[in-house]
UniProtKB/TrEMBL annotation:
InterPro entries: UmpAB
Keywords annotated in UniProt: Membrane, Transmembrane, Transmembrane helix
Signal peptide: none
Membrane-spanning parts: 27-46, 52-77, 89-108, 141-162, 169-185, 197-220, 232-255, 352-371, 383-403, 490-511, 532-552, 558-577, 589-613, 619-639
Protein name: DUF1538 domain-containing protein
Organism of provenance: Spirochaeta lutea
Entry-linked Pfam families: DUF1538
Lineage, opening ranks: Bacteria, Pseudomonadati, Spirochaetota, Spirochaetia, Spirochaetales
Domain of life: Bacteria
Ranges for region Disordered: 309-329
Length: 657
């Protein structure tokens, strides 16, 4: 029976409106939250409002298309391969394909590029090892992370194949990673890579990797009879988050002996010019100083060039360094021209093609040509791949046009709230002692006061002798900022930052497509026992708490391991008391929270606060954003089990008629 075109169009339109409404609801909180802080708390105007609105529209439409494409195209392909490959190729073929899939999906992750972009704030004289990993060895770093994910996927498939519980993997692997982190933090320069390593594990499980490895895991689990229960397909994401941490720590420790020690900016400049420091070439030094150096450093570089008699004097002169200042930014934050938007779309189009098309091609070739498997809904699979491709283009473009600039702006302004004594200074001219009057405090003690009459009424302030310059007749009036609820400025400022961090984590996680994909998968596999909305809400709360801990770590300079060790210790204890089916879901929840929506915003928050406070890096905040959801979901599972048992006990106590 065929459907008339008008009827079909109405059906598609209704379906599309429903899905768009879902995405609007999922992204509304984070968008409204950022706008409220920008306009009401920071009292700053919106820059490029038109471009911002266009970017947000791209994000909403892109998420709608991407999620539908994932469920129609890539996930069915991955699940079908998981069912067929063990039959046709055996366990060896499954493991080999898992390695390739893990590396390929990781290299395609948009969040990996966001992690590399965060390296633009790292200075080589403060953190030489971090600079080397994110700049000089960025490709090698991506390959190391991908190798960790590939090994994790292979281990996950091995676990499904032999019906192994996830608990032994968690109990053995996580202490191993923590011990190596502790060892790295105590090596010369090794403490610099601990935060990067843990954040690397957080960004590996995003919109491309999670749906594919979940689908592959479900396929292998079903092929082997789902011997682990309804949630037997979970647990791979957890491994894909932990093993890259291990890989990056090993890679960083291997590079550490050849790295120079942290130094002053002047010593680093002289070392590069003398050839003692080979972290960067002398040709790149002007660009580095122009973008990341201080005025004192650039002045020192100019003096060093003037005294140099080598040929590099003319090649690296300060005048030539201005070419880097005129270089356009990668993200057109201020350009609202049609050409800038089209250029960005073209760039993201190529990026999405590298992310989606090779993976879809490999999956299709393996399934249809090597395994000679046929699917009944080939048209739906093809449509899903197209929708995934278009959706990813719009999502990444929208983030760069809308969410990322807004997050960067707030990230720069947020540290201002940490000022322990915000105040406004006014200079009163022709001031003398006759302007000072005698008054009393609320406790009845005498006090000298300054009274100012203005259009807004009479203002009274305490007189401070040290602010009075009698020779010039000037008085510097310090007007305290109006702090709501009468709180001390330091308490109010830190409270604003922590509230913002919690809301940012909660709202950005609600909008993550990987979490939405996982939530739907959990609801399907548990036959509605665990609702997708409940899982998403519990995970989002965990991310919010994680960002609060991350901000406190940066503000008070708390070593990352001081939070990771007790946090993962609690998670391991909760794991031992949790049901096997729920362990995989909980540990996977920590991996799907850091995707293309969360990562740019969270890194802007961490690096912005770290830069304002003089911290060499803001890494580690993503690691805590991945840890806390594991704890909240495990607690949710334990409480749900207790409640279920209580209901069953009450049912058994009710006498039957």
């Amino acid at each position: 029976m065929s459907i008339a075109p008008p009827v079909a169009l109405r059906m598609v339109g209704t379906y599309l409106r429903t899905k768009l409404a879902e995405q609007i609801r999922s992204t509304f909180f984070i968008v409204a939250y950022l706008l409220v802080f920008q306009v009401l708390i920071f009292r700053a105007p919106l820059v490029n409002a038109g471009l911002l609105a266009l970017g947000l529209g791209f994000v909403i439409l892109g998420l709608t298309l991407f999620l539908e494409g994932i469920f129609l195209g890539l996930m069915p392909l991955g699940e079908r391969i998981g069912l067929t490959l063990p039959v046709r190729g055996g366990l060896a073929a499954v493991l080999a394909f898992s390695l390739v899939l893990g590396v390929g999906a990781t290299l395609a992750e948009p969040a990996i590029s966001a992690l590399r972009t965060a390296g633009s704030a790292i200075t080589p004289w403060d953190s030489p090892l971090l600079f080397a990993l994110l700049e000089r060895y960025s490709l090698e770093l991506s390959l190391v992370i991908g190798a960790g994910v590939g090994l994790a996927v292979a281990l996950g498939m091995l676990r499904f194949y032999f019906f192994l519980s996830l608990k032994p993997f968690v109990v053995i692997l996580m202490p191993l990673v923590l011990v190596l982190s502790w060892f790295a933090a105590r090596q010369p320069g090794g403490d610099q890579i601990v935060g990067l390593a843990w954040d690397s594990g957080a960004v590996t499980t995003g919109v491309v990797t999670v749906p594919l490895i979940l689908a592959l895991g479900m396929g292998v689990s079903r092929f082997r009879g789902s011997g682990q229960g309804s949630a037997g397909g979970f647990g791979v994401v957890m491994l894909a988050s932990a093993l890259p941490v291990l890989a990056v720590l090993i890679f960083g420790l291997a590079l550490s002996p050849g790295m120079p020690a942290p130094s002053t900016e002047e010593d680093f400049i002289q070392g590069v010019l003398d050839g003692r420091v080979r972290l960067i070439s002398s040709d790149r030094l002007p660009e580095l100083l122009e973008n990341r150096g201080t005025p004192q450093g650039r002045h020192y570089y100019a003096l060093a060039l003037e005294s140099s008699q080598t040929q590099t004097q003319t090649q690296n002169s300060p005048g030539e360094s201005s070419q880097y200042a005129d270089r356009p930014a990668a993200i057109p934050k201020s350009a609202e021209s049609r050409g800038a938007v089209l250029g960005l779309l073209g760039t993201e189009l190529r990026g999405a093609a590298r992310a989606i098309l090779p993976l879809a091609g490999v999956l299709s070739l393996l399934l249809f040509l090597v395994l000679r498997e046929r699917t009944r809904y080939l048209d739906e699979v093809a449509l899903g791949i197209v929708l995934s491709f278009l959706g990813l283009v719009l999502v990444t473009s929208g983030i760069l046009l809308g969410l990322s600039p807004l997050g960067d702006e707030i990230g720069r302004r947020l540290p201002e709230q940490l000022d322990p004594a915000p105040a406004v200074q006014r200079t009163l001219r022709n001031f003398d002692e006759t302007s000072v009057v005698r008054g009393y405090t609320p406790q009845g003690e005498p006090q000298q006061l300054v009274i100012i009459h203005g259009a807004g009424g009479t203002e009274v302030y305490p007189y401070r002798e040290e602010n009075h310059n009698r020779s010039l007749g000037l008085y510097e009036l310090i007007v305290p900022a109006q702090i709501p609820l009468g709180l001390p400025p330091a308490v109010w400022g830190l409270g604003v930052v922590l509230v913002f961090a919690f809301g940012l984590g909660y709202g950005s996680t609600l909008a993550e497509p990987a979490l939405a994909a996982m939530g739907k998968t959990v609801e399907t596999m548990t036959v509605g026992t665990l609702r997708a909305k409940a899982i998403i809400a519990v995970v989002s709360l965990g991310v919010g708490f994680g960002l609060v801990l991350g901000v406190l770590r940066i503000v008070y300079a708390i070593p990352l391991l001081n939070l990771l060790l007790p946090g993962y210790g609690l998670a391991l204890i909760l794991t031992l008391f949790s049901e096997d089916d729920f362990v995989g879901i909980a540990w996977d929840a920590g991996g799907v929270t850091t995707g293309p929506v969360t990562v740019p915003l969270v890194l802007s928050l961490g690096l912005g606060i770290g830069t304002a406070l003089g911290v060499s890096d803001g890494f580690g905040i993503l690691a805590l954003a991945s840890l806390c959801p594991v704890i909240t979901v495990l607690l949710y599972g334990i409480l749900a089990r207790i409640r279920r048992r209580a209901i069953l006990a009450e049912t058994e106590e009710v006498p039957h008629a």
